[in-house]
Amino acid sequence: MAILRKLKEKLTKIMQKEKKSPPQTLAGSPSSPQRTANPPSILAEILAKKIAKGLLRKRKGEEVPLAEKKEILGQQETAIGKTKFYTVEAPRMPRVMPQELPEQYGQDKIVLQVRDLRWIHAYWEITGQTYERLKNELKDEFYRAKRILRVYDVSQIIFDGNNAHRFFDIQINEGASNWYIDTAGPGKSWCVDLGLLLTDDRFIMLVRSNTVCTPIEGPSWITDEEWMIPEDMFARLYGMGFGLGRSSPAGKAWQERIKRELFSGVLASPGITSLASPVKKVPAERKFWLVVNTELIVYGATEPDAKVYVQDRQINLRHDGTFTMRFALPNGKQVIPVKAIASDNQEERTITPIVTKETK
Amino acid sequence: MHKGYLCLVLHGHLPYVRHPEHEDFLEEDWLYEAITETYIPLIWTLEALSNDNVDFRLTMSLSPTLISILTDGLLQDRYLRHINSLIELAHKEVERTRWQPEFQHLAIMYLNNFCKARDTFQRFNRNLITPFKNFQDAGKLEIITCAATHGFFPLMDICKESVRAQVKVAVSHYEAVFGRKPRGIWLPECGYHPGHDELLKEAGLRYFFTDAHGVLHGAPRPKYGVFAPVYCRGTGVAGFGRDLESSKQVWSSIDGYPGDYLYREFYRDIGFDLDYEYIKPYIHPDGVRINTGIKYFRITGSEKKEPYNSHWAREKASEQAGNFMFNREKQIDYLYDFMQKKPIVVSPYDAELFGHWWYEGPVWLEFLIRKIAFDQKTIRLITPSEYLLENPRNQVITPSLSSWGWKGYSEMWLQGPNDWIYRHLHTASGRMTELAKSFPHTDGVLRRALKQALRELLLAQSSDWAFIMGTGTHTSYATRRTKEHLLRFTRLYEDIKSNSIDENWLCDIEYKDNIFPDIDYRVHQ
User: A30 — contact with chain B (CB < 8 Å)?
Assistant: First the structure.
């Protein structure tokens, strides 16, 4: 970690130096000003709104670490990605499963998966027989024992049950069958035992998980002799890769701020955990509204073989000679001559409704 | 002379949504909307470029599920029915808006576009893969594959046999469709887990894409950041990192291009706005209002929406294409001096973003490609294959676990609403491996049952179900699909093990889940 900290300090210095040199100006940035989110209307996308709000709040605040910046972009991508599946649920379509999936598969098993830099997820099942066996062996002790997830740091070793760098315990409740574990340790390998912790501190392992590795939270400090790059140059490329480059359209001031925040906060990637994700919260906003539109229906009937013109445009008749026209009705006066001409062209009739619409 | 490369990548994917058991099925609209608004307009874009002899390179992934539904006879029939009904509605709209010229122009625009879409659909004999294949054969487009059903690989690492099956089924499907092997793959959601490059190599794939931090946080440190691909240690499969700056310009719904006030507003659709009795024949038969695709307003920037003006929007798309190109020129100029080498800027997007969410997207893309061809000399468009051919020497690293999803790792697909699926999916994977190993040579009904078992497992693994559950809205379909395929798999597994396959039932699910007719169940080991 010391090396990483050092790297961070170095990068900070570099960025400060860079700030002193005259910044390049940007010709040809988009002429249109910064905009806010599309305010979604009738079927308001709460998600999109929430994100817009979150961003405004963040703009006012001082600290927008890179991780969050990336997270905001991620949320936007999620919100847009969702529109692919934009739909509503049909209320009358019963979607009841004929059968449910089993709760257990009859195995003693625990599986670990990586959620992000520091969080791993474990799910498990322990069969009734295993518990019965333990009850018989441990008698009363079984009921006094705590159920424990023992989380081992097994980075860079072949774990044999005893050689972990360190471990910590998480007490779980009896009914739990999965758990999110904060390892607080990016870039490490983890293995978890599910077991019983007896009152005399003995630990009885029920089942051992697979090993997983949390990813590192910034650039690697391992360098490649053949592909060396000075650290200041790497820092620039690193920032540019995250979209903080000089040709960014968002303007110099914004870039400077982001750079400052990037190197004052964690030199981190996305994935800092925030359990309260904005995606899941629904704001309790008042959203009362009213929309009124008007349409005009013009309908009538004549001989089925006659020709009918509405405002000089011919329309189609139904087989029985009836017709219906529907118009969006704007404010103002509409003069609507309806003319019917007999099939032998010998006779014609015109009726002209006149409609005035006002909105107050 | 040019100083660097731009690699534009469009990722086309929809999950397998096909319900022969219902006459009208709401979720099939995902496909119909995407055909009218994205796939056909993209074909028009490529045709326009090609007719004007504009030289271009574009990379596109077409997921095996998308190819399957686009080439399915039943869905093709239904699309035709869908577009015919839209055309009828557009005719009515032209009449209805007679006294509102600002809307009537738009009604006429939609009518023309829908008619043109139907013509295009029929011109290619209803098979919209054909034009893409033709552009690939002409050397302009590189089509890459994706996982068979878009399974999210980092959460399948515990059962690599399933990752292998996802890759191998995809590769053989691609070969059957395009008559050649795919060179690269779009990892679903850009989900890379160290070691999976081994499985890509096994299937003959030469490259994939990761999000920026996949490369930037790789070890050792990548000398050129995301501006040159890296080879994975041990396999030599190339990984191309996404450039987030160019992504942001397009993706961001707030300060990205698609949010421009002149562009079409996605959320104002006549399916919701017009009188119920009038619109009823064109929404869901159950009477639920849905999007029709006819949208009259522009984003405007306030709650009171102004009518859309397609000329202004087109002008804006052209201006923004110019802006995008200018920014890439600056970026590449700078990187070229800095790196002493031609950088590659990789800009991947969801294909469905173009046209569906961002109505003007296909036009923007056309302007961009034209401008790059005629208005500048700094950038050259390139495909990953061409790049690797010209730049075979690249650094060897181990990329980091990463995805392009929310927060950059696996949380979108592993959180409260969807974490329950993995115990079932992983158990099913283990069982499928067991079946594949127990029955190396089979025929008849047993063989059909084994093939169907793998189909059901793959369909259950689509990342789309977990994604929809994760967004927390309208999750019942996604939940149902996950359970349905898992239950079908489980029954097949039990029937196969107890040698009691119910052939009638098997026929029924073969008919419902008819994806990958030539699947080889033995790849799952």
Answer: yes
Higher pLDDT, B246 or A45: B246
Count CB neighbours of B490 within 10 A. 20
Report the SS3 class of residue B73: helix
- Please give the Cα distance from B182 to B190 (Å, whole number): 17
- Look at residue B290 and tell me if it is in a domain: no
Of B349, B383, B406, the residue at which a domain comes to its end is B406
d(C-alpha B306, C-alpha B317), whole Å: 18
A355 touching chain B per CB within 8 A? no
Chain A: nearest CA to B224, how far in angstroms?
7
Burial B354-365 (b: 16+ CB within 10 A, else e): bbbbbbbbbbbb
Domains and CATH numbers, chain A: 109-213 (2.60.40.10), 295-357 (no CATH)
Residue B379: exposed, middle, or buried by beta-carbon count in 10 A (0-12, 13-18, 19+)? buried
Query: CB atoms < 10 A from the CB of B156, how many?
Result: 27
A220, B467: Cβ pair inside 8 Å? no
State which residues form the domain around B18: 4-71+127-264+308-406
- In the prediction, which pLDDT does B430 show? 98
CB within 8 Å: B255 and A280: no
Tell me the C-alpha distance between B354 and A47, whole Å. Answer: 20
Asked if the Cβ–Cβ distance from B407 to A280 is below 8 Å, we say: no
Residue B122 has a pLDDT of: 98
**Residue for token pair 């700094």:** B378
> Got the DSSP string for B141-196?
EEEEEE-TT-B-GGGGGGGHHHHHHHHHHHHHHHHHHHSS--SEEE-GGG-B-TTH
Burial of B298: CB neighbours in 10 Å, binned 0-12, 13-18, 19+: buried
In this structure, is residue B115 part of a structural domain?
Answer: no
Per the domain annotation, does B275 fall within a domain?
no
Co-location of B457 and B421 in the same domain = yes
**Which segments of chain A are extended strands (E)?**
109-114, 119-125, 146-153, 166-171, 178-182, 189-197, 203-208, 212-213, 295-301, 307-310, 313-315, 322-328, 332-335, 338-341, 348-351, 354-357
Last residue of a domain, one of B377, B406, B435: B406
Q: How many CB pairs under 8 A join A and B?
A: 336
Domain tally, chain B: 2
- Say yes or no: B444 and B354 in one domain: no
Determine the distance in angstroms separating the CA of A94 from the nearest CA of chain B, rounded to an integer.
Answer: 10
* Same domain? B385 vs B516: no
CA distance B297 to chain A (A): 11
The distance in angstroms from the start CA to the end CA of chain B is 50
Tell me which chain B residues have a C-beta less than 8 angstroms from the C-beta of A246. 330-331, 334
ipTM field: 0.94
Let me know whether B513 and B379 are in one domain: no
Residues A18-38, mean pLDDT to the nearest whole number: 38
Residue with token string 């271009």: B56
Residue B134 included in any domain: yes
Same domain flag for B238 and B344: yes
State yes or no: pLDDT of B55 exceeds 70. yes
Of residues B370, B345, B376, the one with CA closest to residue B5: B345
Q: For B213, which residue in chain A has the nearest alpha carbon?
A: A269
Q: How far apart are the CA of B260 and the nearest CA of chain A, in angstroms?
A: 7
B30 and B135 fall within a common domain: yes
| Domain shared by B327 and B218, yes or no | yes
pTM for this entry? 0.86
Beta strands B396-397 and B58-62, pairing class: unpaired
pLDDT digits (tens, 9 = 90+) for B7-17: 999 999 999 99
CA A302 to each of CA A324, A351, A354: distance values in angstroms, whole numbers, following the listed order = 12, 12, 20
Residues B249 and B380 in one domain: yes
Q: Is A97 on the interface with B (CB under 8 A)?
A: yes
- pLDDT-derived band at B253 (thresholds 50, 70, 90) equals low
